Amino acid sequence: MVCLAALAVTSACGADGDRSLGTQQADATRIAPPDFGSRAPEVCGRATQPLSFAPKAVDMLLLFDRSGSMSQAFGNSSRIEVESQLLEEWLWAYHDRIRFGFQSFPRPGGCGQPSVCCVDEPQVAPASFTAAAVAAAIEAASPVDGNTPTAQALSTAGSFFAARPPAGAERYVLLSTDGQPSCLVTGVLGQEVIRSGQRLEGPCVDALAAVRGLRALGIKVIVLGIGTDLELGIQGAPSCLEDLARAGGAAREAADGGPSFYSARTPRELELALQRIFGALVQPSCTMAISQEAPDPNNVSLFFDMSEVPFDANRTDGWNWLEGNAGRVLEVYGAPCRRLERLQVAGVEIRYGCAPCETPGSCR
Asked: Are 25 and 275 in contact (CB under 8 A)?
């Protein structure tokens, strides 16, 4: 006889898209133990103890460019006005699933001298249900002024995260900007030095160093470029946004041959880019943490939509326990993982039996 524990996962189904972050707008992932009514069923002489999965936690710090060029026309408005409106809409849609934080750059009110660059600490720390606080910080970022201290903003974000333990969350920085960096990390304007297509020093080199510092902390950097011609390189080197996206660990990998960063040349493209970025971050993970350890790791079966996912000792096309975490964290591989990532699974269920078994799924 079988003891049963269930996990309900509801999501939207869709077609393939960008492989790195996806193109689907995911519905809410709802995780709950099964409802047995007023009494739990008696199985194997005892009441069943449901095994529930812990939902994926995602922290995202929004780095919001408020430099002077963000006042340029964008559709029927300006770049900053369109982005502010769209961001606020998506914040309310996702703030129960993504822990948003916010940091604008450069510092509002100027830095004292036109040739000096400066940034503030994040105005909002990543946390659940911060849509109202972030929306207020976005409003406070207007009007635009100043240069583009991208390296300083990324470095400040790194210091912010380094002082806070990850607490099991996936951590991201979304760098939203409309141009190339113009300031060195030291806070002064700088020029790019490029020889034979290689960057030697300058604002982009400093920004790349800051991205590598974030990656060393386990934080991925997503790059969103607002405006036209941002993919054009200079002196034989790729554009700075292209290099930043490649170094950030979350590059856009599309079959269309486009840039590695998310390019928004129009308001509609900006809306789609935000949808793809946020939607992909909340899609089901192929690594599932079980909040209550399985009584017998060798007597567990996994089901997608009532069809069993085979246990796979080779970890290529099925499921297995994460090494060193038997009974607590399982991983899905191959075709079943792709189904999860593409939001093509409506229900996930875990079943465990009462007697020890030699291998997972062998006694039910």
From this structure: yes
Give strand pairing partners of 193. 201
Let me know: does 244 contact 208? Beta carbons within 8 Å. Answer: yes
Taking a C-beta distance cutoff of 8 angstroms, is the pair 193, 235 a contact? no
Q: Which tokens hold the place of 124?
A: 């909002």
In whole angstroms, what is the distance from residue 158 CA to residue 147 CA? 20
User: 54-87 pLDDT, tens per residue?
Assistant: 666 899 999 999 999 999 999 999 999 999 999 9
3-class DSSP state of 60: strand
Give the burial string for 111-132 (b: 16+ CB within 10 Å, else e). beeeebbbbeebbbbbeeebbe
Average pLDDT over residues 209-213: 98
Under 8 Å between Cβ of 350 and 33: no
More confident residue, 183 or 305: 183
Q: Tell me: the pLDDT tens digits for 149-184? A: 999 999 999 999 999 988 778 899 999 999 999 999
Q: How far apart are CA 157 and CA 226, in angstroms?
A: 21
Q: Do 29 and 97 contact (CB within 8 A), yes or no?
A: yes
241: tokens are 């946004």
Contacts of residue 290, Cβ cutoff 8 Å, sequence gap at least 6: 51, 52, 53, 54, 327, 328, 329, 330, 350
CB 242 within 8 Å of CB 233: yes
Pick from 117, 116, 136, 134: which is nearest to 125 by CA?
Answer: 134
Q: What angle do CA 120, 122, 123 make, to 5 degrees?
A: 95
* Number of residues in the chain: 364
Q: What is the chain's alpha carbon radius of gyration, rounded to the nearest angstrom?
A: 23
| Separation of alpha carbons 110 and 115, rounded Å | 10
Contact 153, 117 (CB under 8 A): no
CA gap 206, 83 in Å, rounded: 26
Q: Which stretch of 34-38, 171-175, 210-214, 352-356 has the lowest confidence by average pLDDT?
A: 34-38
In which element (H, E) is residue 225 found? strand 219-226
